[in-house]
UniProtKB/TrEMBL annotation:
CDD domains: p53_inducible_oxidoreductase. InterPro entries: ADH-like_N (IPR013154), ER (IPR020843), GroES-like_sf (IPR011032), NAD(P)-bd_dom_sf (IPR036291), Quinone_OxRdtase_PIG3 (IPR014189). NCBIfam families: quinone_pig3. Keywords: NADP, Oxidoreductase. GO terms for molecular function: NADPH binding; oxidoreductase activity, acting on NAD(P)H. This is NAD(P)H-quinone oxidoreductase.
Amino acid sequence: MHAIVIEDKQLVWAEVPDPEAAEGEVVVDVTATAVNRADVSQRQGLYPPPPGASEFPGLECSGVISALGPGVTGHHVGERVCALLAGGGYAERVAVPVGQLLPVPAGLSLVEAAGLPEVACTVWSNVVDRDRLRSGETLLVHGGGSGIGTFAIQLGVALGATVLVTARAEKHERLRALGADLTIDYQTQDFVREVLDRTGGRGADVVLDIIGAKYLARNIEALAADGRITVIGMQGGRSAELDLGKLMAKRGRISSTALRARPPADKARIVAGVRDRVWPLVAAGLIKPIIHTTFPLAEAAAAHDLMESSDHLGKILLLR
Ligand SMILES: NC(=O)c1ccc[n+]([C@@H]2O[C@H](COP(=O)([O-])OP(=O)(O)OC[C@H]3O[C@@H](n4cnc5c(N)ncnc54)[C@H](OP(=O)(O)O)[C@@H]3O)[C@@H](O)[C@H]2O)c1
């Protein structure tokens, strides 16, 4: 088969051996995959795959099952699926543990489903499973125009939360159309003041943060009493000073997770939660895949250039 391999920090379309389905795995013939910011870091040599994962980039895909490994029951060759991957999605075929398979949500095409598993599992596991966002609460999402952000806006709205987002101004209109109640231009506005103004001084109950160090102190300023901050990205650095006094005064919590390195059983639990709690919202049309554009898989390098420009909104898909 062919796959995108990383050579000298470049993405190259190359012939590689076919994957085989190990115990508890299936092989999926890939229809489409999606670009994630982590793939860019992997290409740059900053984010190696976890032990045992495919060397090829690609954290999610959709496609059709073409082979079953030993011990697999409840799935069949020809079944249309999408999947959360530890790597290997930028390929014509990929081996997937069955616990990371999801059905294609009702009403979506195989291509549309390709960009949902990574954002759905990341956002649901943090905002709902850990941080317990409730109806009536306020969710602050940094990077509202990202793949993660566009999904988090829709999930927050579907759960009955007020959703505030930071993004560059040119993305604001489209983010309000997705349901964001307030869009903050982080380049010209102070998000702390905007969040406090909007919430009558209360602050945000849950903060989903992709910036890290640069926003740590200000996230605490913008946090409501009993608020929860989850850091899932370090685009603004990894080390910062933490004022425990300010956090304690608000009875605040800070946590951080990385989906890719979680053990398979943990991923399977998250995937099951997404299937049961999030897929019905997708099938009902309350959450839509937000696809900026598509590229042929062999032209993944151009897709990475677009992601690095940050001019996209939502997901960039790669089609086989
Ligand atoms: N921990 C995990 O398990 C996990 C899983 C998935 C993703 N992530 C992380 O989530 C983030 C988003 O991933 P993605 O694949 O959705 O990436 P993406 O679509 O490339 O989005 C990145 C976004 O960051 C925004 N941004 C840059 N500087 C900003 C700032 N100072 N304030 C607010 N927004 C800013 C950009 O939007 P503008 O054009 O508005 O600047 C850009 O759209 C990445 O950091 C990724 O590593 C973590």
